[in-house]
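Try it yourself: sequence plus N-(iminomethyl)-L-glutamic acid, in.
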Amino acid sequence: MVGPARPRVGPELNELAIIEDGAMLVAGGKIINVGRYADIKLFIDSETEVVDAQGCVVMPGFVDAHTHPVFGGNRVEEFEMRARGKSYEDIARGGGGIQSTVAKTRAASEDELFESSKRYADWFLQCGTTTLEAKSGYGLTAEDELKILRVIRRLNKETELNYIPTFLGAHAVPPEYKDRSDEYVQCVVEQMLPAIASQKLAKYCDVFCESGYFDVADAKKVLLAAKELGLMPRIHADQLTRCGGAELAAELGAVTADHLEQTDTTGIKALKRANVQPVLLPGSVYALGKSKYPAAREMIEAGLAIVLATDFNPGSSPTPSIPMMLSLACTQMGMVPAEALSAVTVNAAYSLGLGDRVGSLQAGKDADFVIHDCADYREIAYFFGLEHAQATYTKGGKVIAGRSQTLPFAPSP
Ligand code: NIG
Ligand code: FE
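Structure, out:
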């Protein structure tokens, strides 16, 4: 994935800079050199530990740029209700949806949330993800939002995953503020944001800009206040309805506009003018049984530095699997495997301000990489419904992942 020091656009998304018979020299948690084995082997001395990847694909750890990984309980009952024909929107209007997870998250202690989230951290690592953008948003009181963000900070310290925290206090109006959403927005701005900024608990601020949740005016209030405090905006935009989220992202100079299922050409042009990165979340379209995926091809043709992410959450997208997103991008969104891969590595890394550290295997970057048990990178999107990661290296160590622990890799003839 070596290339220019910026996110990839247009035809560049296809340029993976694959090295056949490659090798990589790593020391002190950093990549020292990458090239052909014939050249790199000259650096091997008696101190060097040699890892033979045996013809497998070695690539940067996936960067998942949109997740909600800390929550109490789960929503398997709602999953069955949807299977029986109810819609996500109906369930939310009936008091389920985000509110049901909020109730369970408030009831959970910080330790309980840490333990359940640690289990999900393992899942991400097993899929080959090493960096995660992690949103709060299931607390919706100052105390509970801070609790979630502290859990994210602890996960970052105590697991092998790298977490980048985002404050999403404006995820839904909690029941105690029913019909007083203005007062809730005021609470987010005046109480939550200053506390989070002063404790440095979040790098970004997000808002669920959607009818029935927060309108453009509310979202703008929250994100402008966040910017003042140094938290850069990311926005849940145009997921269920076309309500102006893309244009707002452009107006505020947001780092990303996420979802965009309903965004049209006008919205795409606005994103392009302001250089906002689209973060597309096909897992939520799939898991809600919908069929309108975001217009990825039009966005690529418009020159946007597209990102794909899981949106891991208990309601609309209960999957940690980036390989599943690669499959959906290629089968439902008209993307080719190379474009999809750029969107979950280098482009995702830049969307989190980490382009100089992760997202490509390049001298000077972190030794943050995955050995996938296949001989061609396209197999990761092609053989779907299973994980290919065999070993994941991150934070200076090795995490053993998937199936090759029991099944030795045998290249096909
Ligand atoms: O990105 N859209 C808002 N937030 C999540 C869903 C949250 C939930 O249903 O719990 C999303 O899809
Ligand atoms: Fe989301």
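One thing you can check immediately is this: Residues 68, 97-98, 101, 208, 236, 239, 284, 311, 313-317 surround N-(iminomethyl)-L-glutamic acid (ligand 1) (CB under 6 Å).
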